[in-house]
Amino acid sequence: MHAATPKFHRFGRRTILPGFRLTLGFTLLYISLLVLIPMAALVGKVFTAPWADTWSVISSDRSIASYQLSFGASAIAALVNGFFGFIIAWILVRYDFPGRRFADAVVDLPFALPTAVAGLSLTLLYSKKGLFGYYIYQMIGPERWNAGWATANSNIGVTIALTFIGLPFVVRTLQPVLQDLSMDVEEAAACLGANRWQTFWRIIFPAVLPAWLTGMTLAFGRAVGEYGSVVFIASNRQGKGEITPLVIYTTLEENRYAEAAALGVVLLLFSFCILALVNLLQAWNNKVTGASGI
Amino acid sequence: MAHAVLPSLGTATPRRRSPLKATTEPLWFRALLIVTGLTFIALFLLVPLFVVFYEALAKGVEVYWKSFQDPDTAHAIRLTLTVAAIVVPLNTIFGLTAAWAISKFEFPGKRALVTFIDLPLWVSPIVAGLMFVILFGREGLLKAYLWNGTQPVIPILFNTPGIVIATLFVTFPFVARILIPLMQSQGSAEEEAALTLGARGWQVFLYVTLPKIRWGLFYGVILCNARAMGEFGAVSAVSGHIQGKTNTMPLHIQVLAEGYSGMEAAFALSSVLSMLALFTLIVKTTVEWSSERQAKNALESSGE
């Protein structure tokens, strides 16, 4: 029956199944009400304000400091997750060890745990009184702790929280690609005299590279927008310890809607860039994994 | 076509066929990697979870139970349950219809539609809340209809409807995102057969499609519920933080953590949401294992 499917079909008429107009209509209505109209309202708010005002908000010292923290901490968190996420995905797919399935299930925890709970717990854990913070404090001493090396109420704390929320993105993007890698290619490489290291760098790594980058991009994109876990553990000091979403939030609390909207559009544009980048990486991934098959 | 972002449901990672000596790493290296990976999981994921329960019970079970008798805490729990009770059914209906339209039919702009369904996952929750404040706020686009000066005519912002709408936005991708790949991989042959045999449209959905997707649907609903109850940023922007009125559980956790009443109460409330998260993980794992077992059984019976 599939062979008989014409290559070019009329709008929505591929099968005899009913409900096309109803379901698509409802979907479009729902998305319009919930996404398109509110988004248009946000963008419209920025466009009706004088451009000079918008620009002065976007380029103010406070905003730029917040971009530096948001993007910097997110980038570091994405790299940390890129390293450990690769190892975790690798051992979950390749090796057998007691507790493997448990570890596999636990990787999704940051995705299911409310961000406020994660923030609260991490803040206590990494504060001076906490399980980890205590030892770190003892190790580096009060001077360095107060000079910016503190792991809670600090920008390092922000990085820790963003690492927590980003891990599943790297692991879950890598896992299926590692899973589908054909063993035959590795066996062939070994037969032809490659050692394990060469096989990894020349066979395995190139095949999983797009997925690995995708995972890190997703973790990065998610981290830049993250709010709940970060406000607990950040110092939230104006111009020093504020992430961009927090600047938006405080501006909004002061009823300065136009300024909040200007920064909101910056983050919204960033989200679109991340989505576009992920789509490009995905196309690359399909090409690479398609070619590395048979 | 859709990229593999998170909340999709895979099969649990099955055991690979045992590798040859030439295609695996030496024992010490394997052990090193396993220890590194597991240590990271333990320190970064398990310890924070453990801390929640430890701190919640630090002053004993009595203090733990007592913290829920606080009227504001009790109200926060009720509000969260109310919001979830509205949001989850609506987003489930959306997820089912969107998955039906996208997986069963071909139409131009399908990719763009899927991207829009993904969008709330990548938009900062604060930006999500901001959009609704701008729409419904005192200075917002609909101010002529919603506000009479500073008095709300139709209370949406800083009230339950605003919280519901913000939560709807943040959680609508989940059911759809899990069902679309599932229904795409299952194909439509059985539905078409049922139609040919004279079933009506809703009968096809109820008796053919629904049984096929029930576990994926179940996980989608549970995940949507967990995220709806745990949403912080978007709700924080629209709620107005009125204690005993518009504070949901996550918002009240922040109030308790910053207050003088001690951290036990904040952690006690957190422990409830953590149990919900654990339940979600258990459901996901169970669903994945059972689908893996099914696939294995199907493979074995076809091999005979």
Helix content of chain B: over 70%
Task: Give the spatial strand order of the biggest sheet of chain B.
Answer: 1-2
Distance between the termini of chain B: 34 Å
Got a strand count of chain A? 0
Query: Rg of chain A, please?
Result: 24 Å
Overall geometry of chain B comes to globular
Number of helices of chain B: 13
Please report which band the strand proportion of chain B falls in: under 5%, 5-15%, 15-25%, 25-35%, 35-45% or over 45%: under 5%
* Unreliable stretches covering 5 or more consecutive residues of chain B: 1-6
List the total number of helices of chain A.
13
Global structural class of chain B: mainly alpha
- The average pLDDT score of chain A comes to 89
Biggest protein-protein interface?
Answer: A-B, 114 and 114 residues
Describe the main β-sheet of chain B briefly.
Answer: 2 strands, antiparallel
As a percent range, the share of helical residues of chain A equals over 70%
Taking Cα atoms only, what radius of gyration of chain B do you get, to the nearest Å? Answer: 23 Å
